[in-house]
Amino acid sequence: MEMSHHLKVVKCPNEKCGAPIHLSVGHFKGGVNDKGGVIIQCDECSTVFPCPLKNPIDASGVGKNGRTLDTWIDDLPEYLETKYNIEAKTMAELSITPVFGYEKAPAVEWWPHADTFYNNGSINFEMEAVAVLTKYRKQVSDNYKSYLNLYVKGRHSADKSFVFIDYELDGTKYRATFAKQIETEGDLTPDNLYLISHSKVDLEYQIDGIFSRNQLIIFLERLLNRWRYTAHEVLLVVPFIGFNYKNAEEALSQLWEWLENNVDSEKTKLITRKGTFNLFKQAQDNSGIAFDVLVDLGLLEPFFEKLTGKDAGFFQKSHAKYYVGVFEDYVEVLSGSFNIHTGTYFENMTFKRYRKD
């Protein structure tokens, strides 16, 4: 049966808290949709309260900032009121907001690209890597299935996965390294693997010179995802993201979304101009859902939330542009004249690896 989902946000009823708790509301098209509800515990203050929710057992659920303690169909039963010391009448006082026009950025996907630093002369290793991954897809899938049994039984957990494939081309042996995020058991497949490293590629040689902005945005994406899976910390120092031109807001928003989509927000710190972030907020205000509304409803992605906090990094009197992956014994640095833009203009950029000592 066809089913759709939409987002609602309920505010924690604790007056001292008010945390926005996300509800994913499922609706069966042309079928029976059960009236019911869910007992929610707020992650911020631990307040427990009942909340009406359609199809609470088989189609809907509680997301960000809260967790499900219990569910019911039809009216809230007395035994749940007693068990959790709650009252049905409090549901009439809840602040519940349906959210329309908001879409979370899709998961990042890797695809082979002609303008890549994974090459050697006329050999594009991205094209070779995807060919060899396709060739060995069944073997990779079988390995994921073997691990799935341990994962589902709770004997092992992982938040990322690495796939190493050795192959030979024209008498030379190579190794391609892929990685992906593991959030649910559904991620334990060969789909959406990202190439993060390839043998016999000297990045200090490959990235040293003049490149177009369109080339460099691909280079930076490759490095950000390399660092997402392998670096301890990532530091991005960039004065400008997008352009402050008339009719450039959509492109500016897309660049911010691209950036958020290609970093691990927990390990990444962005240092930019306050005016640059304000341009993004302005573009968001004009996109359908105002920035302040996203904040109020808890809809900001973690990367953007960090820029609204006390530890946000802003500077004004600097034109430095460098992008850094911090490892245990060394750092990788992409630096030069490139802000985060696209286009055919040329920039000077260099990649270097430095030992920490």
Distance between the termini: 61 Å
Order of secondary-structure elements = EEEEEEHEEEHHEEEHEHEHEHHHEEEE
| Cα radius of gyration in angstroms | 24 Å
Please state how the strands of the largest beta sheet are arranged side by side.
13-19-18-17-14-15-16
| Helix amount | 25-40%
What is the averaged pLDDT score?
A: 90
Overall 3D geometry? globular
Extract low-pLDDT stretches. none
The structure class reads alpha+beta
> Quick one: biggest sheet?
7 strands, mixed
Number of strands: 19
Q: Give the amount of beta strand, in percent.
A: 25-35%
By DSSP (H or I, 4+ residues per run), the number of helices equals 9
Word description of this protein:
The chain is an alpha+beta fold and 357 residues long. The chain has 9 helices and 19 strands. The chain has helices at residues 78-84, 125-135, 137-152, 203-206, 213-230, 249-261, 274-285, 291-296, 302-307, and strands at residues 3-11, 20-28, 36-42, 48-52, 61-62, 66-73, 96-99, 119-120, 123-124, 160-169, 172-181, 194-198, 208-212, 233-237, 268-272, 313-314, 322-326, 330-336, 346-355. Strands 13-19-18-17-14-15-16 form a 7-stranded mixed β-sheet. It has a 4-stranded antiparallel β-sheet with strand order 5-2-1-7, with no helix packed on it. A 3-stranded antiparallel β-sheet has the order 4-3-6, with no helix packed on it. α6 crosses α7 (274-285). The longest helix has 18 residues, at 213-230. The protein is globular.
